[in-house]
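Sequence in, structure out. Go.
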Amino acid sequence: MSIKFSKWHANGNDFLITECLSQDFSLNKKSISQIANRHQGIGFDQLILVCPPIKPKSDFSFRFFNADGTEAGNCLNGSRCAVSFIKQQHFSKKDSLVVDIKNSSNLYSISRGSVATESTMATSLNIPRALDKHLLRFKLKKVGFVEIGNKHLILSSKSKPSSIDLISLDKVIRSIADFNDANISVFHKDKNVLSVRTSENGVGETLSCGSAAAAIASLLNEKNLVVASPGGKLKTLKTKKDTIILKGPTEHIMECTWERKKK
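Output:
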């Protein structure tokens, strides 16, 4: 059995996108991790399925899978790429779409080649005290632990994130049960520009993370921010409706087909 995929990226955060609108297939955790292998598969940060809507007034629904095959609740960079894919494949002529994700719905708009998504503010979660000793070691300050479709631990640094040993930080923080399925971000703020690095659950460090940018914007509660990651820049806007708009570029890489290996 073969599955057609489209590969996209947003600031280097790369995604494999396919649709369940005309194709009939099934993927399990093992097959997803095989496709994600950058040496023996296709490679991606997240896999996205574009499916029929769940709610009557929505246009589509998205499902997100990490490179290790686990399912994620949200991916704002990936969903922006998926909206560009929808337009490219002519699945919709609309410039504004409502898309269902795991626990809510997001609004997307397309303008001048850039895709913006509007989502609800992040919901705060309790931070276990066991985190404090680790932050002291890395000279970091806790800003918040939030849910924005997926979990994000947000930390601030007085120095630029490039100086942080993110691999070691990720390892010690994920030893705390509350954070083993969370994205972990470290940022440094200079006026309205944030320098950010993110280690994503089931993936590792990515060049950009849209939901991390939205989570930080929710916590800082500032109207306009520029979020600069190693892969590029995203812009956030806090609206009067207490929602966060995230805007940035998307780019098509290639079309490809995965041939499922016979046993």
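Check: The chain has two domains: 2-120+249-259, 123-241. Residues 76-88 form the longest helix (13 residues).
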